[in-house]
Amino acid sequence: MIISNATRIGDVFWLEGVGGQPKQLTHLNDELFSSSIWSEPEDIWYQSFDGKRIHAWIQKPPDFDPNKKYPLILNIHGGPHTAYGFVFDHEFQWMAAKGYVVLYPNPRGSTTYGQEFGNIIQYHYPGDDYKDLDGRRGRSHQRGYIDEKKLGVTGGSAAGC
């Protein structure tokens, strides 16, 4: 089996029997991970303009200090029928390592939240999905560690960047 998470790229493991402990067989990225600092993304939900809950993640710098102000990058996925998840993403890790807080939400039109949520933007694109991305709502929970004068946005494909 291959085991991966948001701070580690997959390696091959062997699992002997039911309930056995995984034994790591490959160490393909040990050098990379020993020389770099990675941060665990934070899973959040926030309310959009009409009360609909939007799922997102925040990637903070590895040496994050809640008393410090950080620039924010809003990263919008393409698609629109795709979704961010709890996986290793080199772009977000790189931006965070450079001192940015990265917010990456799944607005209306994203998959994995049911057919209605995914198809709600049909014939209305862009529309409410654009309002879901309003950074003020996604930042409201961050308790003051975002520098409101240093905001950026990026993304790919349907994100229009």
Provide the fold topology.
Elements: E1 2-5, E2 8-14, E3 23-24, H1 30-35, E4 42-47, E5 53-59, E6 70-76, H2 90-97, E7 101-106, H3 115-119, H4 128-132, H5 135-139, E8 146-155
Parallel strand pairs: 6-7, 6-8
Antiparallel strand pairs: 1-2, 2-3, 4-5, 5-7
Question: Overview of this structure, please?
Answer:
This protein is of the alpha/beta class. Helices cover about 20% and strands about 30% of the residues. It has five helices and eight strands; from the N terminus they run βββαβββαβαααβ. It has helices at about 30-35, 90-95, 115-120, 130, 135-140, and strands at about 1-5, 10-15, 25, 40-45, 55-60, 70-75, 100-105, 145-155. It has a five-stranded mixed β-sheet.
What can be said about this structure in brief?
By secondary structure, the chain is α/β, with parallel strands linked by helices.
What characteristics describe this protein?
single chain; 161 residues; alpha/beta; five-stranded mixed sheet; three-stranded antiparallel sheet; 5 helices; 18% helix; globular
Strand order of the largest sheet: 4-5-7-6-8
Evaluate the radius of gyration.
Answer: 18 Å
Low-pLDDT ranges: none
The helicity comes to 10-25%
What proportion strand? 25-35%
Number of DSSP strand runs: 8
Q: Summarize model confidence as the mean pLDDT.
A: 86
Please give the largest β-sheet: 5 strands, mixed
Overall, the morphology is globular
Oligomer: single chain
What structural category arises from helix and sheet content? alpha/beta
* H/E topology pattern: EEEHEEEHEHHHE
Distance between the termini: 36 Å
Number of helices: 5
